[in-house]
Amino acid sequence: MSILEGRNLTKHFTAARGPRGRFGKRPPVRAVEDVSIALRAGSVTALVGESGCGKSTVARLLAQVYPATSGEVLLRGEPVRAHRGAAFKEYRRQVQLIFQDPFASLNPFHRVRYHLARPLRLHGHARSDAEEREQVAELLERVSLTPVEQFMDKMPHELSGGQRQRVAIARALAVRPIALIADEPVSMLDVSIRLGVLRLLEGLARENGLALLYITHDIASARYFAEDITVMYAGRLIESGPGEELTQSPRHPYTRLLLESAPDPDRVAPPAGERHGEPPSLIDPPGGCRFHPRCPVALPVCSTEAPGRTELGERRWTHCWQAGAALSR
Ligand SMILES: Nc1ncnc2c1ncn2[C@@H]1O[C@H](COP(=O)(O)OP(=O)(O)OP(=O)(O)O)[C@@H](O)[C@H]1O
């Protein structure tokens, strides 16, 4: 059974700017359309796509930062209905978000100890100063900020970006969540320390049976850390599968494009003539398959009808008119 699941999630925002329509209303930004995704215990699932395709919106819908326009979120198979009160607070404890910017996520006026002790106290895990100290030390150890005495009393500005992100991860762990949603957790960190933070997240998920959603624009990193990869394009999911299989034999032309443009240490320059175009507007997305204007193998049907889901194997599927043809070849 999945720990955290989004079923047919759709989110339309009201555009803050832009021209108004006939009745003075602005058209909605169709940020997320019909997204279904399931996270399993002790497993890393990557959600991959270009900037602006709706990844963060999916993260926020799963974390219930704001309500979905339609669709539902399930925790351990049970639909989440509470949007306030004790049940909602409990949900927010169980599903923790880790953000991209470790500089913005810690309070500059408080020491590391405070950031970790506060959630422990609020959730009743530490009932005395001694217990609190012990648990803060244990959390710092779990994120490899050792020797712990050196880090407990540091102020955020005394830490590197990677160390701050480790404190943010420790703070998320303090409330004993069952699912972690990490939204581009390393993209603001130095390249040299990204790997360490990703390995830490992966280890925590596997050792503690946490369901981890790793959101990234970088399919190369997803391939190394995630058991499953789901690819998103212009608000919709287009392909999903076990990471190895999906990257070895991508079935959707957009996944192929992402893999081709991923940094490859053996390739000096991008292949000649590589022109991929721009992702579409989410206010007025293309009809049919949203990728069709950029697709090198589009058929006439691709511009008129959205392709349904083609099942390709266990946990493996795609939305592409060509997928069926490829299967029967
Ligand atoms: N609160 C909001 N109000 C209006 N539009 C929004 C809001 N949040 C996001 N959007 C729009 O929804 C679309 C998807 O944004 P989202 O941040 O989810 O994408 P993303 O893939 O996470 O991009 P990035 O990697 O750049 O963060 C964008 O067009 C964005 O402008």
The ligands found in this model are:
adenosine-5'-triphosphate
**Assembly annotation:** single chain
User: What Rg, in angstroms, do the CA atoms define?
Assistant: 21 Å
Task: Report the biggest beta sheet as strand number plus sense, adding barrel if it closes.
Answer: 8 strands, mixed
- Poorly predicted regions are 267-275
Q: What is the ordering of alpha helices and beta strands?
A: EEEHEEHEHHHHEHEHEEHHEEH
What's the arrangement of strands in the largest beta sheet? Answer: 6-7-8-3-9-10-12-11
What would the principal axes of the Cα set say about the shape?
globular
Work out the helicity level.
25-40%
Let me know the average pLDDT. Answer: 91
How far apart lie the N and C ends?
A: 34 Å
Q: Give the helix/strand class.
A: alpha/beta
Which band does the percent of strand residues land in? 15-25%
* DSSP E strands, number: 12
Region (Disordered): 262-285
Protein name: Dipeptide/oligopeptide/nickel ABC transporter ATP-binding protein
Keywords: ATP-binding, Nucleotide-binding, Transport
Pfam families: ABC_tran, oligo_HPY
